[in-house]
Each structure stands twice: as C-alpha cells, then as structure tokens.
Amino acid sequence: MSKTNPLSFKNINRLAVPALLAGIAEPILSATDAAVVGNVQVNATEVLAAVGIVGSFLSALIWVLGQTRSALQAIIAQYYGADKIDEISTLPAQAIYFNVFLSIVILAGTLPFIEGIFSLYNASGLILDYCVQYYSIRVWGFPLTLFTFAVFGIFRGLQNTFWPMVVALIGAGVNIVLDFILVYGIEGYIPAMQIEGAAYASLGAQGLMAVLSLILVLIKTNVSLRLRFPIHPELWRLVGMALNLFVRTIALNVALYLANSFATDYGASYIAAQTILINIWLFSAFFIDGYAAAGNILAGRFLGAKDYDSLWQLSKKLTRYSLFIAGALMLISALLYTRLGLLFTKEPEVILRFTALFFVVILMQPLNALAFIFDGIYKGMGEMKYLRNVLMIATFLGFVPAIFIGDYFGLKLYAVWIAFSVWMLIRSGALILNFRKRFRPKVADS
C-alpha cells in the first residue's frame, strides 16, 4: 500500500478533486441538454420542461440501480484496507453482470409504458409528446451508464479516482459538442434535430464512456471481467447493501417526483424554472460530492483496518473542506444570480420564476455539504441500512408533509424548495449526531 499519509491534504485532494470533476460530468450531461434545448426557436418552454421531466425520471432510475456502485466500492475499499484484496478477485465481474442485467430488465419494463409514466408527472399535450421523443432515445444509454458506474466503483474502491475523472470529462466534452451539432444542426450538412438531437448527443457520450471504461479497467487494473463461478459470498452482501440503497433511493425519488409533479401542475413556466433550479442544485451537489467520494473511499479503508481515530479525523477534515466549497458556491451563485438562469432560457416568465426562488438553493449549500459528506462516509462503512432509515424519515416525515402543506397555502415553487430544505436538514442532522454518538467513544478509548 502507499506510504503516503491517507489523511494528508494532498492525499484527500488526490481522491476528491478527480472525483469532483467526474461527479459533475453527469449533471453536466443533463444541464447541457436543458441549456441547449431551452434556447431553441420553437416551443422552447415546452421543450425545456420535457427535458426536465425526463431527466428527473432517468436520474431516478440511474440512482436506484447505480447503488450497486457504492456497495461494490465500499466492499473493495474495506478489503483494500485489510490488505485482502485478492480474496474478492471474482466479485467485480459478478457485480457488473448483475448491474447490467438489472438495467436491461428496467429498460424493457419501461419502454411500453412511456406515455403513462410521464402522464404521472402531470405532463400532457406538447410536453408529453416531447417527453416521449426524448426518453425513447435516451433510455438506451441506461445500461451503458450503469456499466460505467460499476467500473468507476472498482477504481474508487482501489483508491483511484483519476481514471473515472478522465472518462467522465471526455464524455461531458463530447456531449456538449454533439448537443450543439445535433440540436441546432450544421447548415447544408446536418439538419437541426432539436430535442431528439439532445437525446442522441447524450446517448453518444454514454456509449463512448462505456467503451473507455471497459478499456481502462482491462489495461489499468488486475481486475478480470470474465464471469467465473461459484458466486462470491460477498455478492450477497453487496446485493443486501444495494437493496437497502434501492429502498433509500426510492424514497429520494419520491421527493424528486413530487417536486416535478407539483411544478408541472402549476404550469409550463413553473416546471421550466424548476428544471433550471434542480439542475443547478444537482450540479452543486455533485460538486460537493467529490469530497464525499473521498470520504467513501477512505472510510471503507479505515474501517477495514479498524483505524477509528483516522476515521474520526477524516470526518472533521472533510467537514471543513466541504463547508469551504459550499461557501465558494454560494458566493459564485450570488454574483451570477440572474445570468445562470439566462444560460438555460431567455423566456421572461421562466426567468422571473427562477430568480424568485434561486436564493433558497443558494442558502441550502451548507446543509447539502454536511449531508453529502456524511452520506459518503456512511456508504464507505457499508452502513446502508442506517442511510435507508434516515432518508425514509427525511422524505416521509419531512419532505412530503412540507410540500403538501406549502401547496395547500398556495406557495407553489416556494413549497417545493421549503420541502427540499426540510429534507436536507433532517438528513444532515441525523447523520452527524449518529456518527458522533458511535465513534467519539471509540476515539477516546483508543
């Protein structure tokens, strides 16, 4: 193992910065689609609304099934910390095949019911038509993304975030270029495809990322992707962890579904503004999540080595770093308050609704930072059951009552973002208090 102090500023940032850059690539894919199609000449508000609705649903699917990445990453990191990595040589391939199989099942199960699914989001008329066009193309990238995520989990468990960063940045760059080419077209060469062009751009980027991930895992690691039997015992632990995260992510997506459903019901300009707000929120969340990824990787390593003092120090350092990042994001957002919305659309009514709410997203950044950092630490420790319980409580005793009460009093998008604030407050508070209760005595006794 490396002799570098794993808690040094240099080592934490060696893991966090590439993970940060890789993490923001996924929201960049959706945000780029939204920004480019939001500036088309025909039906811009409806197109933007459709991209927001489909993006929310696809994020739900990816987050649900992508949880095997976190479980695989945690197990590999724990075996790495215990210096027993050879004992799980058959596990990565089994986990990847399991992940891809699940994604194909979901793909086949949703395609026949596209209109019904997006009708549940209160989409209708032109918005529903655009949803169907966009989803029927983008959904084919679903297995590709889950394969890529699983490979990222292997690299991160091995304490390497560099190659996932390379793949993610290349994918994001290609997506941006293809978005402009396919959405707007090139006169005399490529016709303007509008929303379908955005979908093909994302699909192309996802395919490239999957191919690059496959090549890198074969040439940069000793991991074999050949499926070998018998089933490794840790696969059942991985499935158990993933199931807890699966239930947890369903609760998470109840919140996202309700947010988009209520916003769509308020009107096209509301869901368009909500699309901008949620994309910026997700971008900042994934930005902070770079340090959560470092917490995930190192927490698993320290727990495997039973080094509780280092685990405690890790939580303190990552808290400081993440709050600094949150402060920087708040400052940048405040300085670019209206301009950020104008990147997505020039529609006056949409911008008006965006600017009325954006301050709430800005003020949430410290809560996001704390919640995501401790979420990453708990994932690294394999504490998926507790994470599941926290999110269930935050969603069904926090978010759901808050959004329905706010809607009852006519607060509209304010109700949505007040509910998100309550949600993040419960999540961050529960994780911090539980961590201190569990590990402070162990540090004192060591």
UniProtKB/TrEMBL annotation:
Transmembrane stretches, start-end: 47-66, 96-114, 134-155, 162-186, 198-218, 238-259, 271-298, 318-338, 350-374, 386-405, 411-433
GO biological process, one term: monoatomic ion transport
Membrane topology: Multi-pass membrane protein
CDD domains registered for this protein in UniProt: MATE_DinF_like (cd13136)
UniProt cross-references to Pfam families, sorted A to Z: MatE (PF01554)
InterPro entries according to UniProt: DinF-like, MATE_fam, MATE_MdtK, MdtK-like
GO molecular-function terms, A-Z: antiporter activity; xenobiotic transmembrane transporter activity
Cellular compartments annotated: Cell membrane
Primary site of residence: membrane
Cellular component terms (Gene Ontology): plasma membrane
Keywords, in A-Z order: Antiport, Cell membrane, Ion transport, Membrane, Transmembrane, Transmembrane helix, Transport
The family this protein is said to belong to: Belongs to the multi antimicrobial extrusion (MATE) (TC 2.A.66.1) family.
Protein name: Multidrug-efflux transporter
Organism lineage string: Bacteria, Pseudomonadati, Bacteroidota, Flavobacteriia, Flavobacteriales
